[in-house]
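Quick log. Single chain, no ligands specified.
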Amino acid sequence: MDLLYELVGPYKIYSDDLKGVDYASEAQMKLKVIEKFGKYKFALSEALQCEDYEQEGILDLTQLQEAILSVDDDLDDHLLDYMLYYVYARNEHADKFEYKVLLSLLDEEGPQDKKKPERIQSAKPKVTSSNDNKKLTKNFKDIVSSNSDE
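-> predicted structure:
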């Protein structure tokens, strides 16, 4: 049995390069967080700010975990672990967590979110050749003259 597993319990190593039972793709985990919390970003932001009594943008581990779980209390343990890891890995202190990093993660777009912009038909008339313009002008003059005769 794995010694580390006995010491710390179930764990995952987040890496896009390494594969195996103990490894999880960081890109896939980011995508899961975005899919799960993207629509709840405002609620998560509010929950984090409510835990931030000093309004510094910094929480301890327990506060961060409680804020995340207050938005989704049925959250998968691995997803919660990844969210805590994500903030911890981008943090300067071992005991205080800047939760704005987590909110910035939700602003990232996943590959399925990148859509080609829909083509919007321009209000500008289509550029035509000079022969087409002459025909249009002649037709317009004919219509105007026929209406003025009536």
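The chain has a mean pLDDT of 76.
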